[in-house]
Write a structure and sequence with these properties.
The complex is a heterodimer of chains A (498) and B (208). Chain A is an alpha/beta fold and 498 residues long. Chain A contains 23 helices and 13 strands. In chain A, 48% of the residues lie in helices and 11% in strands. In chain A, helix 3 packs across helix 12, helix 9 runs parallel beside helix 10 and helix 16 runs parallel beside helix 18. Chain B is globular. The chains are: A alpha/beta (498), B alpha/beta (208). The complex binds iron/sulfur cluster.
């Protein structure tokens, strides 16, 4: 099956209810995000000019957006001058057809792929399958996701929700690998053997592109495993699909992003492998190179003054790893190949705010601002979230929730109104309370309890208790005396998951 | 179809009118202020943190260091770029010069190359596949890569490396940046070395 696409099948709230029930996924995810989060802070602290780099990173991208047409034309000319071909695709369908056309013209039944979120966005694997071409994912995590017919849950570590035992069973089943244990080393070796043969025999490879330099026509792929190097080097034909926002003006600008990206994403000083190539090199690597420039909604994002900053994104996933909502709900809840805070603003915009499921994503946030602080290109995600919420609701009449809040403000502004209201509610709630909580309010108020439970009104309010309480006892009874003699109190047991 | 799409996309970009709020200024490369010895020292340390095996030798010791590096991992079938300086290699070492198009790289256990630059701040070696470095597949398919870095090739930060490589890029050469051996953290975030690229990387830093 194809990995994803960007059209959510459900609202975020519905999808999150399902993912929240998956304790294994939540545990894995929490472990991963906490680990990367801490490591990242150390990696970033090593560079004395980190904040200046972020400012540069944002400024270069803004400059590119202001001159996007010019830079794309420069890039096109430079790639062609180096013997490459350039294609333009307005949407996913066009992009898929271009790739399929190239593969078919070489009679390819199989293509190998480097992990690329852009090809996931256009649902390339599914598109190729319809034309009888099988796309093999070569990134270990993507391979795991593909073999288990699952969806990626993280930009960077797509199989973060799978543990080693699950992976071992999968490899036994699908690769026929004889695995004695579930040691990650053995699992990686099984994948190595399976894929090496593919690298050496497959004619056509498809990659994404992390960056492309307009000045020189140089494409950049950043990775760790070496599968990227294999794909961009060994096959005869290479096709790279990139969003139009990935272009950079000059080679010098690469320096900024080669510092920002690895430290923000894997929290490393540098990722193990980075490949650069310009067109074709005689005697070295693929002798046929195609670059596909993909719009697929990006020009609409560009046209929006506030939303435009979304196009600065370098897909580092730092915002995912700091997001409390992502950490609990998991990547699948976002229903798109772009999860987490960036997904919450990118997906609805790519769909022109026309998809009702995607339009719930801007509410998938506590607006804590952690994503903005972490973002290496200073995308003000909370600002865009609020802005999108405004745009999505602007034509909607006053909702039940709005009315409720207005009434609540009036009631709570006077103590006697408040107490009267509580008494009334206590009598009225009877049939709604189940196990101490209200799970569904009737009628228009149902919107409130769709995503949260409401605690039932207690039999007595604090004010009522305070008025009726006995005189307080003096301090210094036995339990406290023990503490004051210097004996430590028993430590509080920490709630932890294993 | 593509010509029509091209015009459409460019028109849409034009209509978006994403003008610049303020003129764009590039920050110049911050020059290194440290003594070069410290820079080389940090490169050695950071490359080792990426689990590359780092050895420091003087020019006279290079052939011996290459022999030891190959022997330590039992690499007997060795391939080299055809233009690797013969003075680097130990006498009587059986090596094969790569001939793109005919050489079967899967038949070799190890490869010995030079590099174009190395970066202290990130522990990276950079190949521009110029003299002494061979085509890209050469340092990719064999399982063991022995890479020779001259001290003068080590720069402090990424911006200096980028500046130094500008000429290669303008000449249309591919680049490979290598920071440690191939690795993955995809299975429960535990690091495993050697998924597809060379599983072992020896970096020999040669004093001038
Ligand atoms: S929005 Fe910023 S932090 Fe999030 S993935 Fe994009 S660049 Fe990284």
């Amino acid at each position: 099956m194809s990995a994803g696409g960007i059209v959510p099948q459900r609202t975020f709230q519905e999808a999150a209810r399902a993912t929240l029930a998956n304790a294994q996924m939540r545990r894995n995810l929490q472990h991963a995000t906490t680990t990367i989060r801490e490591k990242r802070l150390r990696a970033v602290a090593e560079l004395p000019d980190w904040e200046d780099l972020r400012i540069q990173g944002a400024a270069i991208k803004d400059h590119v957006m202001a001159n996007l047409g010019d830079y794309l034309l420069d890039l096109e000319a430079a790639v062609k001058a180096r013997g490459g071909h350039v294609h333009w695709a307005r949407d996913a369908l066009e992009a898929r057809e271009i790739v399929a056309g190239i593969a078919s013209s070489h009679g390819a039944r199989e293509v190998i792929k480097v992990k690329s979120i852009t090809t996931d966005e256009i649902e390339l694997n599914g598109g190729l399958a319809e034309r009888g071409i099988h796309a093999i994912e070569t990134d270990l995590a993507e391979l795991i996701v593909q073999l288990s017919e699952d969806l990626p849950s993280h930009i960077l570590v797509p199989a973060i929700h799978r543990n080693r035992a699950e992976i071992r069973d999968l490899f036994r089943r699908k690769l026929g690998a004889e695995l004695l244990t579930d040691e990650p080393k053995q699992l990686a070796e099984a994948a190595r053997l399976y894929l090496r043969e593919k690298f050496l025999t497959t004619k056509v490879a498809v990659s994404g592109a992390n960056f492309a330099v307009a000045e020189t026509g140089t494409i950049c792929v950043v990775e760790s495993e070496g599968n990227g190097r294999m794909c961009v080097t060994l096959p005869e034909v290479l096709v790279s699909v990139m969003g139009i926002e990935k272009v950079l003006p000059t080679w010098q600008d690469m320096a900024v992003y080669l510092q920002l990206l690895p430290r923000s994403s894997t929290a490393e000083r540098m990722n193990p492998y980075t490949s650069f190539w310009s067109g074709v090199t005689p005697g070295d690597g693929p002798q046929e190179f195609h670059l596909i420039l993909l719009d697929n909604g990006r020009t609409d994002v560009l046209a929006d003054e506030v939303g435009r900053q979304t196009l600065r994104c370098i897909r580092c996933s730092a915002c995912l790893n700091v997001c409390p909502v992502y950490e609990r709900a998991g990547g699948h809840a976002y229903g798109s190949v772009y999860p987490g805070p960036i997904g919450a603003i990118l997906t609805p915009q790519l769909l022109h705010l026309e998809n009702k499921n995607a339009n719930t994503l801007p509410w998938a946030s506590s607006l804590c601002g952690a994503c903005y602080d972490a973002c290496p290109v200073k995308i003000n995600i909370p600002e865009v979230l609020l802005y999108l919420r405004g745009k999505i609701t602007e034509d909607r009449p006053l909702s039940a929730e709005d009315t409720l809040f207005k009434t609540a403000a009036w009631v709570m502004s006077e103590p006697h109104r408040f107490e009267g209201a509580i008494k009334l509610a206590r009598t009225g709630q009877g049939p709604l309370v189940k196990q101490g909580a209200i799970h569904a309010l009737p009628g228009m108020l149902g919107g409130w309890t769709d995503t949260r439970d409401l605690p039932a009104f207690p039999p007595q309010t604090f004010r009522e208790w305070w008025r009726g309480r006995p005189a307080p006892a003096m301090r210094g009874t036995e339990g406290n005396a023990q503490a004051s003699e210097g004996q430590p109190l028993a430590p509080q047991r920490e709630e932890r998951s294993i | 179809m593509s010509a029509e799409s091209r015009l459409d996309i460019l028109t849409r970009i034009n209509r978006a009118r994403a003008r610049e709020a303020q003129p764009f200024v590039r920050v110049p490369v911050r020059p290194s202020t440290r003594p070069h010895g410290d820079v080389v020292e940090q490169f050695a340390e950071y490359a080792a943190e990426y689990r590359a095996n780092v050895v420091r030798v003087d020019a006279g010791g290079l052939p011996g260091a290459i022999r030891d590096a190959l022997a330590a991992r039992g690499s007997e079938r060795v391939v080299i770029p055809p233009d690797l300086p013969t003075a680097w290699l130990p006498a009587h070492l059986p090596v094969t010069g790569d001939q793109p198009g005919t050489t079967d790289l899967t038949a070799f256990q190890a490869v010995v190359t030079g590099c174009a630059a190395a970066v202290a701040e990130s522990g990276t070696v950079v190949l521009d596949h110029g003299p002494g470095q061979g085509r890209r597949a050469l340092t990719l398919v064999p399982d063991h890569h022995v890479c020779v870095v001259w001290e003068a090739q080590v720069v402090d930060g990424v911006p200096e490396a980028v500046a130094r490589l500008a000429e290669s890029v303008r000449a249309g050469r591919p680049l490979t940046w290598i920071s440690g051996p191939s690795a993955t953290s995809d299975i429960e975030l535990s690091r495993v070395e050697g998924v597809h690229g060379p599983r072992a990387l020896d970096i020999l830093i040669v004093g001038d």
